[in-house]
Amino acid sequence: MFSVALGESPLDRCGGGVALTREVEERLRRPVFADEDAADIAFAIAARRADGELDSWRAEIVERDRAGAELGRRDVPLPAADCPRALDTLAVVLAIMIGPARVTTEPPWRAEPSPVPSPAPTRVDRPREPPRPSLRGGAAATPPEPPEPLRWRMSPLAGVVGGTGVLPSAAWAVEAGALVRPPVRRFALIARAAYWPPGRLQAPAQAEVDRVGGAALGCLELYRLGSLAAGSVAFGGCAGADAGVITARSANLTTSSKSSWIVGVLAEARLGYRLALRHGVAVEPYLAPQLSALLRRDRFTYRDAAGRERTLLFPAPASFQAGFGVIVHFL
Hints:
The chain is mainly beta and 331 residues long. It has 2 helices and 14 strands, in the order βαβββαββββββββββ.
């Protein structure tokens, strides 16, 4: 049987040692922990803040037998901002160190009183099983980071966009929306709206043109480098549809309406850097270039001084845009 002693750590917020022993026994599917007096092997866990990192802890696990001889040692990084994840990480490491149930014909160990008091503690050497590299690993081995739990999440986003192809010249916009992660790994949905402020057109006729629109995208994360707790770079691709309304204001317009719908399909590449902050919050600045093919577009016309009808604005069949902003994740 085993015992565990857990000092001050980020796990105190989600159950401490009691929650840790429960998580380990659920993974091993058997009871493995007992009181310290009845245990053959004891785990002592001490946590300390990582040097130079306010939001990161490192837990040192020392394994000793009943006589106090050290059997192994592990150094495990813990995300201080995510208590459930820190608990899950320690539980995985302890389950690996304990390993499967062991079968032995050796009679149970019993302490025998010493007839003569000894000034120094007597070390009792007990036979130990040969090391199992596939289960125990080396003393310096670090377990892989557990995957992020799958559940529905929504993260707000905001940014600025610049582009050309729809309005008369290069223009900019502000956008806001949300990134929704369903319980599917590496997949996300994005819904956003953008407003392009009025731009003044001097030639061929004086006019003001603005645009408002939105987009819905499905995104797939193709590659991620780094740790979710310490910071990671992610690259992905998105595809979807966008729609909007262009409004032109000019005294010489000859079209029946001053507003026109545009509809298109778009492809987008996304590059982001995710950084964990305090209190379970992470921010992810992103860069997102995109290419849109317009399926519906209308021509705005006006009448010049000679009375001839001319084109004021006719969006190009394809447009290029690039957005820069930030996503706020709640862990």
